[in-house]
Amino acid sequence: MRFLFLDLDSTRPDHLGCYGYHRNTSPNIDKIAAEGVRFENYYTSDAPCFPSRTALMTGRFGIHNGVVGHGGTAGDVRHEGIDRQFQDKLASESLPAFLRSVGFRTTLVSPFAERHSSWTFYAGFNEIHNTGKAGMESAEEVTPTVLRWIERHAKEDNWFLYVNYWDPHTPYRAPESFGNPFENDPLPDWITDEVLEQHKRKVGPHSASEINMYDNRTHDAYPRHPGEIKDRQGLRKMIDGYDCGIRYMDEHIGKLFQALEEQQVMDDLIIVITADHGENMGELGIYGEHGTADQGTCRIPMILRWPGKIKPHVDRGLHYHLDLGPTLAELFGVQPMPSWDGQSYASSILQQSGTGRDYLVLSQCAHVCQRSVRFGDWLYIRTYHDGYHLFDKEMLFNLKNDPHEQFDVSREHPSMCREAVYYLNEWHDEMMMSMKFDTDPLWTVIREGGPYHAKGHLPGYIRWLEQTGRGHAVEELKRRHPREFA
Question: Is the peptide bond preceding residue 482 cis, with omega within 30 degrees of 0?
C-alpha cells in the first residue's frame, strides 16, 4: 500500500475547479477529485499554519496541545511534564508515528518545522527533506526533490509521502515566465464596485489599503503581489496572483502524478489533497491573509482517493481536519491513538451517508483572538481581540445565502447567537474537563499582549493611518486597546 499526502498551503476550496470555481485553476487536482471523495464542509480546528498543522499531527485541538498562535507560549507545544515517560506521546501517537505503526515508512518533503520552529512537526517521520527556504519556496524548488524520491522509492511497498507546496501563500510568486492564464477571465462577481469601495474604507492588517499587513509597500522580487487595491485593476492583480499560484502549483502536482504513472503505482495509490487553511480574498474586508476564525480562513479542501476502498462521491458533513487520524485507523482496522480528539468519519464515506458532526468550534489566536461556531447554515464568530480590524464582539453569517460573509445578521437572529454560544460553552467545558492543564491558551495569548501578529504594532500602525489620511478609525482603536497604546 502506498500513500501520497499533498499539503497545499493557503489553498481555499472554492478557488479549485472541482469545487465549482469558474476559472481553470486545478485540472490535475480535479482529476483526482473525480476519482475520490470531495469534502464540502471540512475545516481546520485551529488556524493558521502552525496551530493547524500541530492539531493535525498531534490529533488534538489547540486548547489541548497548547499551540493556538505563532509566538509566545501560544507557539509552544505543551509537554507532558511529570507524567512523561522515556519517550513522549508524539513518538508513538503523532499521525506519522501512527502510520509507522500500521506498516508505512514515512517521508516528509517540507521546510515547515524550520519556518515556525515547530520541531515537533518532525515526530514520527523516518525520512525528512527540508527544501530550505522556510516556506518561501516556489514549486520548481520543491518538485525536483519529490521526483527524485519517486524515482528511487515509488515501486517499494508501504510508503507514506507527505509533500508541502507553498505557491498560494503570500507573497504570490509564480515566475513571470508563467504568464497569466486568467487575464481574460472574469473576477469573482460578488466583489462589485460598491463592495470594493466598502472594503477600501476598512482598516486592519491585510485590508484593501494595506495588503502588506501594516502598510502598502511592495517588493520588486514579487511583482505579482500588490501593496494595496485602489480599483478593479488592483483587484485583478490580487485575485490573478493568487489563482496563478494555484495553477502553477497544480502543474507541478501534475508532474508528480505523471512520474507515479510511469512507475506504475497510481492504480493502488491512496491520495489525500488538502491544506492547512484557506485564504480570505475579500471576506471580512481582508485580502491575502488567513488571520480570522471564519469561512475564508478555516474551510479547507479535502480530497481522499482510495482505489478499491472508497467510491467517488461528495461528502457534505461537518468534519475537522484532525478527524483524519481516527478515520484512517478505522479504515485500516485498528484502534485510534488514545490521546486523539478526533472522531472517525469512515462509516460516512464508506456508506456515502454524508453524516458529520452537529457543530464545529474553530479557533484563531495568531492574528486575532476569535472562536467561531459552524453549525447548520450558520457561522457565529466571537471576537476577544480584534487584531485592529474593529470587528464587533459577535458576528453571525448565513453561509447558505451569504458565503462571503458580507452581512452580519446577529441582531436579526439573536436566538441563533444564543444557540451558538451554547455550543461554544459546551465545547469549552468538554475541552477543559479532558485536560490536565487549567489554562485555555486563548486567555494566555491575551495576557501576553495579544495575538502575535498584532502584538506591539498598534502605536506605529496608528501613526501610519494618520500619515496616510486614514485616521477615521484611530479613536476607536485607541478606545478598544488602551493598554497596547499606552
Answer: no
**Cα separation, 292 vs 309, whole angstroms:** 36
Residue type for position 481: H
- The answer to whether the CB of 96 falls within 8 A of the CB of 124 is yes
- Copy the grid coordinates of residue 94: 503523532
Lowest mean pLDDT across 92-96, 122-126, 339-343, 478-482: 478-482
Residues 6+ apart with CB under 8 A from 249: 8, 11, 139, 165, 167, 168
Distance of alpha carbon 332 from alpha carbon 99, whole angstroms: 10
pLDDT digits (tens, 9 = 90+) for 375-387: 999 999 999 999 9
Length reported for the chain: 486
Is the confidence at residue 436, as pLDDT, over 80?
no
Q: For the whole model, what pTM was predicted?
A: 0.96
Joined grid coordinates for residue 373: 461556531
Look at the alpha carbons of 281, 284, 286, 290 in this order and tell me if their dihedral is positive or negative: negative
Cβ neighbourhood burial of 150 (10 Å; 0-12, 13-18, 19+): buried
CA distance 404 to 402: 6
Is 70 exceeded by the pLDDT of residue 486?
no
d(CA 66, CA 443): 12
Distance of CA 9 to the CA centre of its chain: 7
Cell of 245: 499560484
Q: Kindly state the cell numbers that stand for 309.
A: 476502498
Task: Catalogue the E-assigned strands of 326-419.
Answer: 360-364, 369-375, 378-385, 394-398
User: Residue 104 CB: number of other CB atoms within 10 A?
Assistant: 21
Taking the C-alpha atoms of residue 29 and residue 47, their distance in angstroms, rounded to an integer, is 23
Residue 281 grid coordinates: 480574498
In the block, residue with C-alpha cell 481555499: 12
